[in-house]
């Protein structure tokens, strides 16, 4: 039987799948970048740009 899940339930199922296998769960990155050279973060490595450029430190504090 097909179960209907909300978007939040699908997201949590996905997160739980990886957390149960030892992956660290981190907070989501903002879609509104702090970088004035871009308009919108859609995907990819943009959230890591400050870390790569040395202007921010990587913080691995899960939720």
Protein described:
The structure is a single chain. This protein is mostly helical. It has a domain at 25-63. Helix content is 27%, strand content 0%. The chain is built from 2 helices and no strands. It has helices at 7-19, 49-52. The model has no long low-confidence stretch (mean pLDDT 82).
Summarize the structure.
By secondary structure, the chain is mainly alpha-helical. The protein is 27% helix and 0% strand. It starts with 6 loop residues before the first helix and ends in an 11-residue tail after the last helix.
List keywords for this structure.
single chain, 63 residues, mainly alpha, flat
As a percent range, the share of helical residues equals 25-40%
Tell me the Rg in angstroms: 15 Å
Low-confidence stretches: none
Strands, count: 0
Return the structural class. mainly alpha
Approximate shape: flat
Mean pLDDT score? 82
Q: Mind sketching the topology for me?
A:
Elements: H1 7-19, H2 49-52
